[in-house]
Amino acid sequence: MNQLESDLRSWAIQRRVIGALLMREILTRYGRHNIGFLWLFVEPMLFTLGVTALWTASKAVHGSNLPIVAFAITGYSSVLLWRNMPSRCIGAIEPNLSLMYHRHVKVIDIFVSRLLLEAGGATVSFVALAIFFSFVGWIKPPEDLLKIVYGWTMLAWFGASLAVLLGALSQQWELVEKLWHPTAYLLFPLSGAAFMVDALPKQAQDLVLLLPMVHGVELIREGYFGSAFRAHYDMSYMALCCLVLTVCALAQVRLIARTVVPE
Amino acid sequence: MITIDDVSKSYPIRHGTVSVLRHANMRIGRGEKVGILGRNGAGKSTIIRLISGAEQPTSGKVRRDMTVSWPLAFGGAFQASLTGLDNLRFICRIYGTQAEDKIAFVQEFSELGRYLREPVRSYSSGMRARLAFAISMVVEFDCFLIDEIVAVGDARFHQKCHIELFEKRSDRAMIIVSHDPGYIRAHCERAVVLWNGELHDFQSTDEAYAFYDETSRG
Prior knowledge:
Shape of chain A: globular
Helix content of chain A: over 70%
Oligomer: heterodimer
Mean pLDDT of chain A: 90
Shape of chain B: globular
Largest sheet of chain B: 6 strands, mixed
Strand content of chain B: 25-35%
Low-confidence stretches of chain B: none
Number of strands of chain B: 9
Number of helices of chain A: 9
Order of helices and strands of chain B: EEEHEEHHHEHEHEEH
Mean pLDDT of chain B: 88
Number of strands of chain A: 0
Distance between the termini of chain B: 35 Å
Distance between the termini of chain A: 34 Å
Low-confidence stretches of chain A: none
Strand order of the largest sheet of chain B: 5-6-7-3-8-9
Number of helices of chain B: 7
Radius of gyration of chain B: 18 Å
């Protein structure tokens, strides 16, 4: 059998396994009760709506005269995208150990299936809310759709690479799980979701722009209402960060995959 | 053919590592039935997992030129929060076969009736064992790995398992772990003994048992 044929066969197996894990994940997480897997989208939507309501009520200071609803939806949806993926991947191997008896089920498949589910849920929630609020006229339709897709994809890449890295590290060090929660909580106000970079003093801008996700959020906002403010982002910097995270993540997965013992 | 080539396996423990298997060599041809003997903790399940590919050797290579099952045991390899039916579908998806035409067989063989649609965690151990065996028979393999699969359920179920595995699939290779000397003797042509991290290969089960008895006594 030549190399291409064997690669194609591996790809087919991989796809099958990820599909099976996706179905399993949906069933174990949401079950068949009430609205079932619709919770996948409804849960992040409730989060975003709640935050939007809070920010509107408190007239949150975000340093611009942008419409608060659009600001909250772009901001909080992106937080959900990059923050939930690591939360779902940390400690993901343990409950799946009994499935590792099957040779085709690899550590990376477990991560990928959870990432697909998380990214899918956050994306559908974002799109549905944006369409709904445009429809009722609370926000204007986006100015540049491609920029939003670009920014969203980059945030998803960032979230996914961080998730796999932390998920794989957490298998080796339980400490990762303990530290992730406070870190994620503290990162939220710094992540660009709750402020516009342009409104910050120059020194603070430089510091905040060290965080890769800020660039993604700024790009999404430029796509949404770019003519109303000045966005600050450097996508090549963000791509470099994601690339480094991805390489570290895959290396760590390779390392732990050899040591995982089925239950 | 399955080839175990100079395989070693060690696990990290709190202080250093424990070596379970050292430089093991073994071959299993098509249709061969091989028993694995060893005292508790000798590494029988470890070698089964290494052959199945569920675990990777620390050094050495395991080559599989035929399709090999997962380690069939009464339990494990299932998701307790899912129903028996969902577990069947999951296994079928993973191994790339259709589930729908197998439901009837699993339902009939496992004697679970409507419990097939209840979560596995609500099953008794006997029910789990019956489900596990029934699902194991749904995917066809050239080689079955059987880890302590005997002595579960009543005599009638025992007989049913025997027919499925050893009569209908008598042409397949099998690697069997068991504490029951009678079981290994009845089903295997030869056996290996795991002792002190070493794998001793014997041409007949009688020779293997002679060695096993000797080392157990010492």
